Amino acid sequence: MSPIPHPFPAAGLLDDERRKRAALDLLAARRAAIVRRARRALLTRLLDAGTATADDMRDAVQLPPGVRPVALGAAPGPLALAGIIRAAGYVTTRRALAHTRPVTLWALANRAAALEWLRAHPDLPDNTPAQRGFYDDLD
Questions:
Q1: Going from the N-terminus, what domains does the chain have, and what CATH number goes with each?
Q2: Where are the alpha helices (DSSP H) in the chain?
Q3: 137 band by pLDDT with thresholds 50, 70 and 90
Q4: How deeply is 138 buried, as exposed, middle or buried, from its count of CB atoms within 10 A (0-12, 13-18, 19+)?
Q5: Of 1, 25, 32, 91, whose CB count within 10 A is highest?
């Protein structure tokens, strides 16, 4: 049985993007300290090297037991929306488990804004209340 196509494909894509954004926003709220560290790691790498990928965030942020790397996916979006970073293309991941899939190559768009963001957003402690399980208290 094949799925019924959406009558307005563009609307389906907008719905998909809206669901993705909502999931990433919830993830950022539930894993606030981890996502903050990932954003800081991404910006630090960009300031030092000019480009960065999810692999660089993964190398820089130690995930606690039970936390999947998908938590890092919430890191770049708000920085890109703020004009601090920009997508510069795609490269192949370095991680063997990812089977050479493409990952976004990020570039610094605004150095001054990156430095200001880092100043205004210090690291969060691990015991931040938002660090409870991703699915806790969801109805």
A1: 9-121 (1.10.10.10)
A2: 9-30, 32-49, 54-60, 76-81, 111-120
A3: very low
A4: exposed
A5: 32
